[in-house]
Amino acid sequence: MTQPPCRVCGDSHTGFFAEKDGYAYARCAACGFVFLDPMPDAAALAGQYAGEAIGAEAYPKAASRFRRARVKALRLVRYIRGNETIDLGCGGGFMVEAMRRLGARATGVDVNPGAIAYASRRFARNRFYCDDLAGFEGRGLAFDFVYASEVMEHLPDIGAFMGLIARITRPGGHVYVTTPDIGHWRVPGDVTEWDMFSPPMHVQFFNRRCLGVLFERHGFRVRRRFFKLKPGLQMLAQRLA
Ligand SMILES: [Zn+2]
Description:
With 241 residues, the protein is α/β, with parallel strands linked by helices. The chain has a single domain, classed as Vaccinia Virus protein VP39 (Rossmann fold, 3-Layer(aba) Sandwich). It is 28% helix and 27% strand. The protein is built from 8 helices and 11 strands. The chain has a 7-stranded mixed beta sheet with strand order 6-5-4-7-8-11-10, with helices on both faces. Helix 4 links the parallel strand 4 (84-88) and strand 5 (105-110). Helix 2 (62-75) crosses helix 4 (94-101). The longest helix is centred in the first third of the chain and has 14 residues, at 62-75. It is globular and about 50 Å long. 36% of the residues are buried. The model has no long low-confidence stretch (mean pLDDT 94). The structure holds zinc ion. Zinc ion (ZN) binds at residues 6, 8-9, 11, 28, 30-31, 33.
């Protein structure tokens, strides 16, 4: 049986890594990227999110979500103020509103119609779209600052996501991403005990190095990596002019 090539670095030396709940993950020997093998398609994953119905009237933990969004946005204010910004996977729109309050023309996109209904109603001064990645790309929009928090670990086609990111980020613009860090020293020795190791929702895991490699292969330069006590990556990259 031939192994699939690594979608981050292209190396063909990938092999079995771990199994949980009947799902097998492979790991790239060259860059450490970990991914479901076989990778489920988007239609199979869509069923996993069916239970996450959110109504337009109420959003779980709205007050604390907004508080946390404001703290995060403040740390990134220099990339936000006066800029066109987008939150990819914006949920209820808390980060979008936090960016607007810091002086951005802010946009949010999410596949969850309930979340977008809530965001449009609650934070009506922003633009919101209920799209999948391909649908959003078709709009032809471009931004100075792209924010995508805890999104990348969910996407079965990471190449398509990076293509979208490269196309919607203006030359010289910045992208900020967060995703679990499988290379972090606090990930348990038995990785199946890690609470983030949850197939099939989390289809892949990055480490510090391979996340940088991925962005560099798609026309970005890594500008900042943020230190985290918990196993999470936070990275800022700039699109080359
Ligand atoms: Zn690799």
